[in-house]
Amino acid sequence: MRKFLVGAIAVLSSVAAMPAFGHPEVADTTQHVKKKRLSLGGYGEAVMTKNFFSDNYLRYTDPSGYKNESHGRFDLPHVVIFLGYDFGKGWSMGSEIEFEHGGTESAIEIEDEEGGEYESEIERGGEVALEQFWIQKSFMPQLNVRAGMGQTNAHHLPTEFFGVYRPEGENTIMPCTWHEIGVSVWGQAGDWRYEAMFLPGLDSERFGNKTWIHDGSASPYEFKIANNYAGAVRVDNTSIPGLRLSLAGYIGDSFRNTLATTSNPKNDGIHGTVTIGTFDFCYNAHNFIARGHFDYGHLSDSWHISDFNIRMSNKSPSKRQKVASDVIASGVEAGYDFFSLSPRLSASRQKFYLFGRYDYYDSMYKMERDTKDDWCGRQRVAVGVNYYPIRDIVVKGEYAIGLLDKKYNNEPSISIGIAYSGWFL
Known about the structure:
mainly beta, 16-stranded antiparallel barrel, globular
């Protein structure tokens, strides 16, 4: 859950391995820019997974018919280039260009809720994702103003979380890297750090059953609609050596934040207010790392939004699914560097973490009127290793199993991956 903010939006990250409301400690070019006027860096991942469960769109409606199936995948989840520059006198710039899954941000999917039809999904307007672009004025450590576009993550770099993939819970119900255009004010005094943001609201037409608001920050258009606005805040404390404790919150309306006509009188008074509260922590000391998070989200008028979206045209960007009023996501991971027990290996600065992770999340935790889809709630248990031959390179291996309601099939998998993250200039 690491997310809120690294760019113009570096604020709210909630969580453990990858919060939903972020913290600019990672992937933020600010600190590096101050050391050198021009900064160039990036990160990338290559992964392979064998899933010992079916990927058929009917696997939840007919579990017994797809009980003994499996499928595998190779992927390049993220390849990213950072570019930053220090203009002097407190002015700096940061940018990030990301290539996801080795291609553009459009994809063909089999839509579970529409009879298994093939659909072309536009995940974000444009062919290449500009994840960050911001200009910042630093007045003093306690006061910095940043405007532009940024993402919301505290631990989203592949060298900053244990699993082969980013944590599943937050990544399911909220944007994994929540990028928005906006303005943020942040600063640090002693053991306290704060950040407050002003940004466009989400688009409720893109909410869904499994993903809740996940796709609501993206825009299928060449611009971001801002009929509604939102705010986010985050506070971090590092009074205890090696430990960071953080609280974050988000609130903003989502209905009518679109091009679609909503002038029907029955839509009067509908706001679709999204409210999210998060707590997360990170402990890193004595060759031991532990991260954890708890997120709770609420959507007002969820029944009306569900009905509105389901009635939309098949050609609209809406998922046309019912949406929950309340969601929950929690997770904790911990790992120990066993190479630290060997003076020789420790001196070489290699690291070998054995880790475990537990997640519980439910994208339909509560419904305003409709019956929830039980398969949207699950637990996930994972164990694995992270090997760092050098600081900026990590080789990962992981066994995980998704534990669903007893009427469905569990979802075990084995994944391996290799990733890098660092500065070139």
